[in-house]
Amino acid sequence: MPEPTPIEPTLPPAANGKTANDPRLWPVATVMAAGIFATTFVQLQGLGYLPFNHLLQKVMGLNSDQAATFFSLSMLPWTFKIIAGLLVDGVPLFGSRRRGYLVLSALTAAVMWILMGLSPDTWLRLGLSTKNYFNMMLALAIGMNTAIVFGSTTSGGLLVEAGQQFGVSGRLSSLRVFAQNLGAGLGLPLGGLLAAQAMGWTSAAAALPLMCMFFASWFLLKEPPLPPPAAHGRSFTEQHLHVIASIWRQIKNVLRREMLLPALLMFFIQAVPTFRSTCFYEYQTKTLHYSDAALGWLGLAGYAVALLSSGVYAWWCRKSSLRASLYLAIFVTALSCLPYLFYTAYTPYMPRAVAIEGVGTFLQYLAYLPLFDLAVRCTPKGSEALGYSLLLSVWNIGLMIGGKTGPMLYERWLHKNMNELIWINAVVTLAGAAIVFFLPKNLVAQREGK
To answer: String of b and e for 175-188 (b: at least 16 CB within 10 Å)?
Structure first.
């Protein structure tokens, strides 16, 4: 069987003297940012977080551990981003390497959200029991997440490709986190306002950024023509063997030692039992008596301040080695937990809670940026979407584990003592510094631009 024809990169080869102002870079960066914003905004951890917590805990009467099960299961597609990466890098869609996946992702996710927006009465009239309604919503949530996984994976491939070609991995990672924080920061307060309303309003709010992602991908992403299909003139079986060979080439490209320790570090940071989950929602609403709308505004305050982290790291990544930034990130991740020890019951204007959310969220996302920078640096060329999605799949598996073990500890072993869970989160996180010590020198010894 002939060697599979390599898939051309989305960007043309960079010229000598390449800079961040290259006109080929910023349309791709815009599409990447639009994809990251939309796929973050519409997540159940974003726009859907408060409406679904309200539905599960206040309408359906589930406890925080049961609600955490729903959120963890709905996130399962994020743990399989590697499959999306294999397809995005190895199998063109609608004659394109990236645009087809972005367009299909946006349209499919919009349809899933519209179906989730149908009222419970509508589903009950179709013969669903309360248990079946729970299962139906879970299935739709999994389908929606599957769609946006492809959009997020493709956006990540664009980021890595442009970051490596133009030497701006830190700055594009900062743009990615800016778009992510903007999506989450706008989604939370809007979700808080819509939590007590019909779910149809939430689904309508989700459809708008997905359509923006669709049009940005359609009009701004100009990919070079793909090489002539190598399968021309072959039998049906030979065509499929060609696709399998292309996928296998992508797998071999990412099975490298340079990706093992970065993956372990990203998994560990997220797998630590966390208080930032359904148990904190229960603690805020039932113990401290915050309303859904108040939590939405607190989320806006936190993510608005967190937007500054992108600018800080875009400057810092050109001043310090990545290894030093990663050591600092471990410390800052632990430090970001401590302000939450001083949370108090609801008061008008919530001055202390606003300050805590602002400081805590800013430190948390400032600490994440070196990890995303590391992910861009260690991803092999030619397998940008696959390599980056593999690392983020590991990240999301850790997030799913941490998001489940935190509420489990809170409900079953800590007797709903939130401060103890916060200390566990902070102290265990510090152990990640041991992994940073063993990271390959060629990945972390230099600052951006060197």
So the answer is: bbbbbbbbbbbbbb
